[in-house]
Amino acid sequence: MAELCVGSVLVTGANRGIGLGLVHHFLRMPKPPQWIFATCRDPKGQRAQDLQNLASKHPNLVIIALEVANPVSIKAAAAKVGEHLGGSGLNLLINNAGMVKPKMLEAETLEDMTETYTTNTAGPLLMGQAFLPLLKKAAQGSPGSGLSCSKAAIVNMSSIGGSIASCFGWEIMPVASYRCSKAALNMLSKCQSLAYKEHGILCVALHPGWVQTDMGSSAGHTPPVTVDDSVQGMLKVLSSLSEKDTGAFLDWKGKVVPW
Q: What's the alpha-carbon Rg for the chain, to the nearest Å?
């Protein structure tokens, strides 16, 4: 299995959980990316301490303030990333930032539904729009006509909770607002794959497994998958993707998840 090889990558929600795990793995690669852009809401805050410690040791790691529910913040982040990249593009955009409000269906509110959808679905839409010029640039600068994550790609961190066919874990985590937002994210991923294919950009929705993070444990159960195993699996999957996979909904082991 070829190791994923990218010149530049951006990970949202990178201060903890899966996002931080991805940053760790990118830094540890035999040939790490020239640029790793790690974004979070408050780069100087206590919750970003681990990220700050890493950045102090690795000059290729750049922490950028970004609120995925705020279009102004997204545009500012895209401009900063563009400055760092100079004339080159962004190879890999990983929309990992997400939220869940654990509630029973009868307790869901318009506010919760709107906030969850804005972060989990509209955020990745706006990120794709803002970073499209940099992704296009990366695709144009890569040899070959095929699609791959090493060339230019958008990876949307989805969840099997958004699978209408599976309805996995309903008894443990009903969380309708989260499930609806991820089902919509899956459709967004499909739309992006259709719209951006002509620009040489691969787009997929990825289920990381039920992972031992703050979000994964929010229902009061210990998830079976460690961050390390999930991230390792996902990076292996990303390294093997090609144009036949664009628009797919896959899990961290590379299996197709039912829509």
A: 17
